[in-house]
Design goal:
By secondary structure, the chain is an alpha+beta fold. It contains 13 helices and 15 strands. The strands form four sheets. Strands 3-2-1-14-13-12-11-10 form an eight-stranded antiparallel β-sheet, sandwiched between helices. Strand 2 and strand 3 form a beta hairpin. Helix 1 runs antiparallel to helix 13.
């Protein structure tokens, strides 16, 4: 009887210790979560950011996802993981994914190093180097030597609907090209992805948006992703804001922004953080999402490989629709009244996405970001990757 009593006391102590330990771990986890959320919210205050949605993935799954703040600040509408944000230039990564799928399809018989002029109604050449072909690889890695006269390109080609004849004239003008040969220098280009979008349409006999929906968004279960704001409920859209004069100013609503992002392959995509996590998983999981292969593993590796290491673009090198260095690859997107961020850390295959709905007026006028905004974005990125290390 005494032995049973002793054993019972011992068992009770063990249970209490283990239970206390578990409870302590739960409380610690809650404290970490609260501390982390507060850290993110502090960076939002620093950057005058009304709304932020963010996600962390590793390999084949989402590890964390959350929405903060107000998608419509003055109407008091909370952001959710299904709030729609414009992702701007991150669209270029999707365009690269689309053409890589087409290159994989042997029935089309094309390769990364093909002369793209074969798939256009005009000869795309730098007139200063008429014997040097421009390839898909060059366009995707911003090595075409095309001078990015983007505003003129948008006005004439998209808005005034000038097509083949105007493009032929535009690309034959030496003023629209650099003095170096294609493949011998870098210039981040809006024209390159636009040309890729045209080629996708010419090769597949589908519109660019329909191709992406059928071959990328539907298999990735991205049902709340589109190129047009009109496809969404207005109440589910993140309202864009500008911070100026110590106030959040609502920006002109979406018809104007849609006009601004009229070149769909360059920066026209709108999505939710929950949807776009599927796209990121496809890239961290070697081309597969939820058992469905979107790209070959070799294609994903090629997209994240730096194509022209001898020609860096500032502190980064370009892959195919991605850029980075030996530590990471990613892309960002600057929209009117917002910013989108996508990044994969190589050593642990951790991926981070976040979208926000504010942009400084100073950035639009003189293309300079105020320090508080830069510091806030850097802080958010660092906090997300630090959390990723704990997951």
């Amino acid at each position: 009887m005494k032995n049973l009593f002793v054993k019972g006391i011992t068992f009770t102590i063990v249970i209490l210790f283990v239970g206390t330990s578990i409870l302590s771990n739960i409380c610690q986890a809650l404290e970490i979560t609260d501390d982390f959320d507060s850290e993110i919210e502090n960076f939002m205050k620093m950057g005058h950011i009304p709304s932020l949605v963010a996600c962390i993935v590793k390999n084949d799954s989402v590890k964390w996802m959350k929405a903060f703040g107000k998608s419509d600040y003055y109407r008091g509408i909370n952001s959710t993981i299904d709030t729609v944000f414009p992702i701007a230039s991150i669209t270029k990564s999707v365009t690269a994914t689309a053409i890589m799928q087409i290159i994989e399809n042997e029935s089309y018989g094309i390769s990364l190093d093909d002369n793209v002029s074969k798939y256009l109604p005009f000869d795309l050449k730098n007139p200063k180097y008429p014997d040097v072909n421009i390839t898909f690889r060059m366009l995707l890695a911003h090595q075409s030597s095309f001078r990015d006269n983007h505003n003129k390109f948008v006005i004439y080609y998209r808005l005034l609907k000038n097509t083949d004849d105007w493009l032929k004239k535009f690309f034959s003008d030496p003023r629209n090209w650099f003095d170096y040969a294609p493949g011998k220098g870098v210039c981040y280009s809006m024209g390159g992805p636009t040309i890729i979008g045209m080629i996708i349409e010419n090769i597949t006999n589908q519109s660019y948006k329909d191709y992406c929906k059928e071959h990328i968004f539907t298999p990735l279960e991205m049902y709340n992703t589109s190129f047009y704001f009109s496809d969404f409920d207005e109440n589910n859209l993140a309202h864009p804001y500008l911070w100026t004069g110590g106030k959040l100013l609502p920006y002109l609503q979406y018809p104007f922004i849609e006009l601004y992002s009229i070149e769909l392959p360059v920066g026209g995509l709108k999505s939710t953080i929950s949807d776009f996590s599927h796209y990121l998983i496809m890239h961290t999981n070697k081309g597969v999402y939820n058992g469905v292969r979107i790209l070959k593993e070799s294609s994903v590796e090629e997209m994240h490989r730096y194509q022209y290491p001898e020609y860096p673009d500032g502190n980064a090198l370009h892959g195919l629709g991605w850029y980075g260095n030996e530590s990471y690859s990613g892309h960002s997107g600057t929209a009117i009244g917002g910013f989108a961020f996508l990044k994969i850390r190589h050593y642990d295959n951790a991926g981070v996405i976040y979208f926000i709905n504010q942009r400084s007026l100073l950035n639009i006028i003189v293309h300079n970001l105020p320090k508080y905004y830069i510091d806030a974005k850097k802080g958010i990125e660092a906090a997300l990757f630090e959390k990723a290390s704990e997951l």
